[in-house]
Write a structure and sequence with these properties.
This protein is an alpha+beta fold. Helices cover about 30% and strands about 30% of the residues. A hairpin with a 6-residue loop joins β19 (about 325-330) and β20 (about 335-340). The structure holds flavin-adenine dinucleotide (FAD).
Length: about 375
């Protein structure tokens, strides 16, 4: 019998287990595959903190106003990322270069003006850049760019190593991290809950659902529902090239995230749709690949000669509001969600910290309202 069972060994589950174990709780993490096998190990590693240009362009101001409560959440997560690895002696390759949304049309520029006004009103230190600012501070971007929105908090970390490193840190603090165990049933018992896997049953007073794309299915094991869905998207990486890209870049009106890693490789993504194959697994879509590369080269012409070494597809956890879903499931005392959609890599440190506190009946160490994130 543990204090807490965490279902899912992605970055949400590992981070929750880490903070629980560092508080001295007796925690067991159950993962069906290995740590970080799904989205947490296949993502682009961008650390996002600004209102994302894609939903802003699609859904507009009313959506953005509802998203504002998430800005201090992501800002706190950025601050935590800076210290996170050093707390447990791992280099998570965190860099904070700032993120820049590139505008190429008058409409883009008006969108960025509205976005920056809204963000600054909510306390985020974002800046509107003119064409001249862009030439001076990001001279490597295309001459077609006429301005942009800059958020100094943003950057990147290494998704290939981060999740397993956090999981190992949780283990070093005493967490039982059990992989190769698929949760198939959850039932209430007098002392809490019994979680049944394909390799045995485990009991705990409380349970955290950190099952990523499968969080809705896992909630369903206790009769709950969750508006998280799974969408296949894809990413590409180039061979290492000389340093050229100095920021996390986005486009104001087309799907793009673009950045250069410490090793010189360029990661090209932005949420271009992938396909689902006959075995229900995500598969790269050729059309999306070509479009993604077209948008990337239009933003930074200097990368046109860099060779792509790998393109891959994975499923992202999405919802309509883009707000985190964090807290106790209504009507199911003792069963908690840790589900940060779309940007769950960015939000993992603070989401793990908040959920670990809530599970222990403690006030989370935040100075903003988390009630909009309630399941
Ligand atoms: C291609 C791509 C690019 C992305 N880029 C970024 C980015 O740059 N920045 C960013 O912030 N976010 C990005 N994301 C989103 C981010 O990766 C996710 O939001 C985040 O990883 C979610 O973490 P998680 O731990 O909640 O879920 P997951 O990583 O999906 O982990 C959930 C875990 O639960 C396990 N599990 C599920 N069901 C069960 C069960 N029944 N029993 C046991 N285990 C179970 C799964 O095997 C899995 O390991 C991207 C996503 C994708 C797909």
């Amino acid at each position: 019998m543990s204090d807490v069972i965490v279902i899912g060994g992605g970055i949400a589950g590992c981070s929750t287990a880490y903070f629980l174990a560092s508080d001295g709780a007796d925690v067991t993490l159950l993962e069906q595959f290995e740590l970080g096998t799904l989205a947490s190990g296949a993502n682009a590693g961008s650390l996002h903190a600004q209102i994302q240009p894609e939903p802003f362009a699609d859904y507009g101001m009313s959506w953005a106003r509802r998203f504002l409560p998430a800005l201090p959440f992501f800002a706190q997560s950025m601050a935590m990322w800076r210290e996170f690895g050093s707390e447990f002696g791992a280099d998570l390759e965190v860099s904070q270069t700032g993120g820049l949304v590139l505008a190429t049309t008058g409409r883009d520029m008006r969108l960025m003006e509205d976005k920056v006004r809204l963000e600054r009103g909510a306390g985020l230190d974002s800046e509107l850049w003119s064409a001249e600012d862009v030439r001076r501070r990001a001279p490597y971007v295309s001459r077609r760019v006429i301005g942009g929105a800059y958020c100094p908090l943003e950057g990147q970390a290494n998704p290939l190593t981060a999740t397993a490193a956090i999981g190992r840190a949780a283990q070093a603090l005493g967490a039982a991290v059990l992989t190769g165990r698929r949760v198939v049933a959850i039932r209430r018992i007098r002392t809490g809950m019994e979680v049944t896997t394909d390799r045995g049953s485990y009991r705990a007073a409380r349970v955290v659902n950190a099952a990523g794309n499968d969080a809705a299915r896992v909630a369903g094991l206790l009769g709950g529902r969750l508006g998280i869905r799974s969408l296949p998207i894809q990413l590409s990486v180039t061979e290492p090239v000389a340093p050229v890209i100095g920021h996390l870049l986005y486009s104001a009106s087309e799907l793009l995230t673009l950045k250069q890693t410490r090793k010189g490789t360029v990661l090209i993504g932005g949420g271009w749709p992938a396909e689902i194959d006959g075995r229900r697994r995500p598969r790269v879509a050729g059309g999306s690949l070509l479009n993604n590369l077209r948008v990337a080269v239009a933003a930074v012409p200097a990368i046109a000669s860099a060779r792509i070494v790998r393109t891959w597809a994975a499923e992202v956890n999405g919802n309509d509001s883009w707000l985190p879903v964090i807290g106790e499931m209504p009507g199911a005392g003792g069963f908690y969600f840790n589900c940060v959609p779309w940007m769950g890599f960015s939000g993992a440190p603070v989401a793990g910290r908040i959920v670990a506190s809530l599970v222990q009946g403690r006030e989370p160490p935040v100075d903003y309202d988390i009630s909009p994130f309630r399941p």
